[in-house]
Design a protein that fits this description.
The chain is an alpha+beta fold. It contains five helices and 15 strands.
Amino acid sequence: MDQKETKDQTKEPFTEYGTYSYADYLTWQMDEMVELIKGKVFRSAAAAPRRIHQEISGKVFNKLFNFLENHSCKVYEAPFDVRLPVKSKMNKDIDTVVQPDICVICDKSKLDDLGCIGAPDLIVEILSPGSNKKELKNKYEVYEESGVLEYWVIHPDEQTVMAYTLKEGKYIPSRLMTSGDVIRSVSISGFQLDLKYVFKDLD
């Protein structure tokens, strides 16, 4: 193999049509964020998230961090790898690795130096242009199948939130919520989020 070939493979270590595992994922050196969902590669834009996305993320993370400061649960924000194993926890057998905008893990045995292995208790995703299908279909399915207890989807442009709660293995959606509503978490006892605070001053 010549030097040019090696360089090209390092730059583009996968194809859009292959199926990959977490073992493959660990070998990639990419400038953009990449997620694996059931072995399929999903790229995020190389550009940073939009300003409003980051403002909303900061507000939600701040509220969770302060609430959980003396709590056994831990909150993390992207980039943070969440591995969702099905067959086993071996790297070669894990085919779903996601980076939620925000996640809360209450079982510390799921945390290691690489991130989280297993389903978080709460995941918050903030939609970005071009990500809606990934968040609303692909991630919804793997979060439900993996046992994520609670999944919030925030739509910055519409200033709305849908909260999905896992009951008997299936997600039950809330009504569509917006500024003036308060979300009360099912998985994080006592935590509530005022959406007026989340969506104010986003001009």
